[in-house]
Amino acid sequence: MNDLPPDWPMRETSRIIRCRPHEWHVQVMGEGPDVLLLHGAGASAHSFHRLMPHLPGCRLIAPDLPGQGFTRAGGLLRLGLDEMADDLTALCTDQGWRPAAIIGHSAGGAIALRMAEIMPHGPNAVVGLNAALGPFDGFAGWLFPKLARAMASSPFAAAVVTRLSSRRQQVERLLVGMGSQIDAAGIDAYHHLVSRTPHIEGTLGMMAQWQLEPLLERLPMITVPVLLIGATQDHAVPPSVSLQAARLLPRGDYAEMSGYGHLVHEEAAEATASLILPFLADRKAVLPEAPSKQTPHR
Fold first, then answer.
1. Looking at the predicted structure, is the pLDDT value of residue 8 above 80?
2. What is the pLDDT at residue 292?
3. Does some domain include residue 263?
């Protein structure tokens, strides 16, 4: 773990696991039923460090996605939605983890739903936090994937993007642009990530290979109970995306958090947990000890 800074959030819970094709950095804490936490594009498992202490009664397993954070990708051709879901499922099998629930933020929400489709022993519940379950609209929808593919195909693109984006002030502006206000330590963590060329390379590869439409078409066939939480100030994934997806899911529920942005689980960890825990307890995904229930709505 030589690459891991000494002050990295929850460093004491970190471990390195070699499970082909990747070398995974995973943070594990707690005891009880397994709950898998999946971060979004451009982040790492650290994004759950505020939320995890508010999720008692379970063993929390938070891997860095392939090529991002401190997970070393075994190849840059396995960074798409289906490939990452396959490799995460293989990691769980290899380690004997049987997630009773999967919690995914942003793109991690899409991966969570895909894993629920393919796991031999699927989760009892899935939670999406500002889950990226909608296509890009208009010109952005045409340009963004093509731009990502063009950049990912250049051997110099990641280094250039790293140099352009790694100033702390630029990182802070990016986070504010997503509607989120997080503390200085949180900004420092993202600043460290975007200063690492391998992390940028992995994020670009994920963006270039992302194919969401087949999953969106199958939403009416996904029968696992799903809670989608949308934040009203999210400028990256508007809450309407979660609401619409919840209506398509046969057992989908929607809850809304006012005044927070894309990183709602970092801004308001306790309030986020107060929605998650009762939902998981009702679906027998965690131990029943939970805060008073706030009922999600469709």
1. yes
2. 43
3. yes
